[in-house]
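Quick sanity check, Prepilin-type N-terminal cleavage/methylation domain-containing protein:
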Amino acid sequence: MKFFGENKNKGFTLLEILMGISILAALVFAMSLFFYNVSNLGNVFIQSYETQQEIQLTFQLMIPEARSMDISNIGSYPLAEAASSSIKFYSDFDGDGFYDQIRYFLDGATLKKGFLTPTGNPLTYNSANEIITDAVHDIVASTSSIFSYYDANYTGSEAVLNFPVVIADVRVIKINLTAKQQNQNSPVSFGVTVTPKSLQSN
């Protein structure tokens, strides 16, 4: 008669199974968190890039427009309005002989652009024909001005002209745009200084 030894392999205990499940769950959670962070970081990078592109594209249009501002087709002064969050001027930046009325203004958290070409005979600027488009979204509210203005004494360190600005005194315009989408860690900010040619001889 053969006697077989006792089978010592009793399998996993309930405690070991629970520990294994816990470890597996922790690994799955850690991997999910890792991929979430990677995905979120990618989204933040994309948003930052989009914001940067919006500001740069706006400056690419705004700078030549402002530099070439001049007397309108009906004899209005080149710079029509000069406020902290808006500006309006006339410019023939495309050289077609028409001095379009161009304005940039803050509407909520969006910097918008208004574009109006004179029409009719005699020419008039009919506000009903103005085309308004979004320029930069998610502008950050701050105590600093989007548009700042300087007189003929400007060399780089002079104080800005106080508001309300005397338009005839303006020779230099500084533009500062700061924007931040919801998930961005920090805002994107760019600034430029524009010296309109037509204002230098006044």
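Posting the structure with no commentary besides this: The mean pLDDT is 85.
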